[in-house]
TrEMBL record:
It comes from the Eukaryota. The chain crosses the membrane at residues 91-115, 127-147, 167-185, 205-223, 262-290, 302-325. Putative odorant or sperm cell receptor. This is Olfactory receptor. Belongs to the G-protein coupled receptor 1 family. GO terms for cellular component: plasma membrane. Its main location: membrane. Keywords: Cell membrane, G-protein coupled receptor, Glycoprotein, Membrane, Olfaction, Receptor, Sensory transduction, Transducer, Transmembrane, Transmembrane helix. It is found in: Cell membrane. It comes from Equus caballus (Horse).
Length: 377
């Protein structure tokens, strides 16, 4: 009896000791399993991080990627305009509205006179009619939008609208460059080679010159617009101008604009340099031919026609070279605004006056158009 009790008492502690060991072993296995899972998770994260670093060029590239993700893209710009005070804004509104109406009215009157008057159906006036249409387009791209902002007191313009305005402005300005060159070539042929003028400046040649001018101007505008879309705009969005243009937008980019500035300078050199050289060459020959004319009346008429064209050329190319033919980022100033006013408002407004005041044929045609309108009313 005593021995059974002793044996039974010994078996109890031994059984409980075995259960304890089983629980300990099970706990160790669970800890090992958790550590293994954690290690696998760390390994997976390391692989993903390594792949991402390899994709973006190491840890610095990964930091740049993170910065790009956190960067807020500019979706609109604020055009500061010409003046800030409300009283001056009212004055600017009235002046620019009058200038717009005068410019559109004057250029459309010249265009109507050229279309109506058979005497003006010549290559020179064909190019002049195209120039008048371009002047109407050039001022319409910039001034009505500015007048609308002055009236509504809202100076914001979307990113897409800004690019659209820039594209059409450079399209029409580029077309002006080549059209003025074609007009100089026309004067060269008319004065220096009068016997073959009708052959060398036929209607087909006129259309080809205009079509090629549009093609080059379109390529120029599209190149600058696409190049601008490669820039990042993530910081300030206030444009110190009354319309969207390249030099002012370069100031707002948070990425390097060196290539864009070099492109603007190089293309500007071609767009302005080549036409200026051709125009100067043409007029050197024209001047030499005119000096050989014995008739005083003939000399006066030739110099009058060429003088009008040269005046427009000097105004247009002078302001254009000042605005675009410069390297390096310079702070936008009031001088740029003044040049912008000259390019978009004054030049288109002066062209009808320059060509009509110096040309009796245009004056007579304009008078007949106006009298015809009055008689109808």
């Amino acid at each position: 009896m005593t021995q059974e009790v002793i044996h039974g008492g010994a078996e109890g502690p031994v059984g409980s000791h075995q259960d304890h060991n089983a629980h300990v072993a099970q706990g160790i296995e669970q800890v090992d399993a958790k550590e293994e899972q954690e290690q696998q998770r760390v390994d997976v994260c390391s692989v993903h991080q390594a792949k991402e670093e390899e994709l973006w060029g190491g840890r610095e590239g990964l930091m740049d990627l993170e910065a790009r993700r956190n960067r807020t893209a500019v979706t609109e710009f604020i055009l500061l305009g010409l003046v800030e005070t409300e009283k001056l804004q009212s004055v600017v509104f009235v002046l620019f509205l009058i200038a717009y109406l005068v410019t559109v009215g004057g250029n459309l009157s010249i265009l109507a006179a050229i279309l109506v008057e058979p005497k003006l159906h010549t290559p020179m006036y064909f190019f002049l009619g195209n120039l008048s249409a371009l002047d109407v387009g050039c001022i319409t791209v910039t001034v009505p939008a500015m007048l609308s902002r002055l009236l509504s007191q809202k100076r914001r313009i979307s990113y897409e609208a800004c690019l659209t305005q820039l594209f059409f402005f450079h399209l029409l300005a580029g077309m002006d460059c080549f059209l003025l060159t074609a007009m100089a070539y026309d004067r060269f042929l008319a004065i220096c080679q009068p016997l073959t003028y009708s052959t060398h400046m036929s209607q087909a040649v006129q259309l080809i010159l205009v079509a090629v001018s549009w093609a080059f101007a379109f390529t120029n505008a599209l190149t600058h617009t696409i190049a601008l879309t490669t820039l990042n705009f993530c910081g300030p969005n206030e444009v110190n101008h009354f319309y969207c243009d390249l030099p002012q937008l370069f100031q707002l980019s948070c990425s390097s604009t060196q290539l864009n500035e070099l492109l603007l300078f190089a293309v500007g050199f071609i767009m302005a340099g080549a036409p200026v050289v051709l125009i100067i060459t043409s007029y050197i020959h024209v001047a030499a031919a005119v000096l050989q004319i014995h008739s005083v009346e003939g000399k006066k008429k030739a110099f009058s026609t060429c003088g009008s064209h040269l005046t427009v050329v000097c105004l247009f190319f002078g302001t254009g070279i000042f605005n675009y033919m410069r390297l390096g980022s310079e702070e936008a100033s009031d001088k740029d605004k003044g040049v912008g006013v000259f390019n978009t408002v004054i030049n288109p407004m002066l062209n009808p006056l320059i060509y009509s005041l110096r040309n009796p044929d245009v004056q007579g045609a304009l008078w007949r158009v106006l009298v015809g309108k009055q008689s109808l009313t």
